[in-house]
Amino acid sequence: MCLLIGPTGVGKTLLLKRLSSIGKGAFENLGQIPSTIATVGSNLVTVNIHKKHDITIRELGGSMGPIWQNYYKDCKTVIYMIDVCNRLQVSSACIQLLALLTHESLLKTPILLIFNKIDMPTRMTKSEIEALFRLQDIIKSAQQVISVVEISVHTGHGVQDVIKWIQKAQK
Ligand SMILES: Nc1nc2c(ncn2[C@@H]2O[C@H](COP(=O)(O)OP(=O)(O)OP(=O)(O)O)[C@@H](O)[C@H]2O)c(=O)[nH]1
Ligand SMILES: [Mg+2]
Q: Which of 38, 61, 142, 157 is buried most, with the most CB atoms less than 10 Å from its CB?
């Protein structure tokens, strides 16, 4: 199982919807943007994006932060998503990220960091975020292999990179 977490409103549920429609054969940027509501609890979806087997992804709502750790034991990979427009969320997102990277159950778990909503003109730039998160320091000091992608679930930009990472990491 792949665990999909991150603060509220960053786009986790929308990404899951995109991945399931791509798994059903739809092109990644076709169709309207489906609406989402804040996830209370968790959202379990099986997506058909791997040649050999289906992949189960569990989203935990951002408001469930205090209980995320109950799910760390059962996951093979973790995707942590961040909203590049939400400046108010940066520091808490960073603290949450550090907590998960140092959690004993996740020390060997491959981590994908997603910076989402790069379609927005009000977005923070990549270097701005990297500085705010001290990303290079985090990557250097973490025990896990951390990959980083910038995406827009709205336009579909970068979603293929997410799929490639899941296919590789979730063998
Ligand atoms: N502009 C823009 N908006 C996005 C993007 N991805 C998601 N959103 C919007 O962000 C809002 C929140 O998306 P959700 O997928 O519900 O967020 P979530 O991370 O599941 O939130 P919780 O379930 O509360 O933890 C929705 O209005 C989405 O349409 C994106 O790439 N660009
Ligand atoms: Mg959600």
A: 61
